[in-house]
Amino acid sequence: MILNRLKKRWDYPVIRDNPRILVIIPCYNEEATVRELAEAVRQYADVCIVDDGSTDRTPEILKLIEGIYVITHKENTHIPTAIKDGMSYAVSERYDFAVTMDAGFSHDPKALPQFFQRTDYDIVIGSRTEKVGVPAYRKIISWLGAKVVNYGISESWFHFRGPGIKDTTSGFRMYSRGAMERIVSSHLQSKSFDFHMEALSIVFRTGGTIKEIPIKYAHSNTSFNLRVLRQAIAFGFHLLKTKGETGSEIDRPE
Length: 254
Hints:
Radius of gyration: 17 Å
Order of helices and strands: HEHEHEHEHEHEHHEH
Strand order of the largest sheet: 3-2-1-4-6-5-7
Distance between the termini: 31 Å
CATH architecture: Alpha-Beta Complex
Number of helices: 9
Number of strands: 7
Shape: globular
Number of domains: 1
Structural class: alpha/beta
Helix content: 25-40%
Mean pLDDT: 88
CATH superfamily: Spore Coat Polysaccharide Biosynthesis Protein SpsA, Chain A
């Protein structure tokens, strides 16, 4: 049903052979891992690292890595702007797909080929079915977040399960160019990790297709805190407030 809606509203061909793929890596103070990660990812696809105002040696290290594209923010802008700038670059350079992933090795670069095999969807989510070192409270928050997002983006007030997406907050994802164009042209409401929820809502509510694939997730140092949780809760209420709306009704072009 979702795929039929896509064909009616999104006039993009399904790309199966030799798509151009970019990996977007938002980066803030990741001097310990950024070089190793970039060199690992570069084996699979082109790499764009968004240095989001790092104050450690990250900027110096990035200058030493060959074959990558770097976007530099003078100040820390957080996940939404960092990823949106990476997507803007991907769209302008006519990439067919872009994968977003964490800079601290929470996401395994060896999983990238699994994403590349699913070019018939607009968002492919790396669903964290195997979790290593994830605190119980984070699992509960992710579970509750999935409930809110699924209900919030469904069209009917009585469709409680919604599209049934299991992991709505995973940042390891692949986006089609059509999905990126819609996100880039939207005025984002999200402030931090809630970007992952908002990106889903934008794409699904405008007719995009979504697929989940299983991945292993290793918990690492994170900037998740009470302020970030409050922002996610606020965006959850925004989804409920705009429930049933689609397209331009919720996503105002900048």
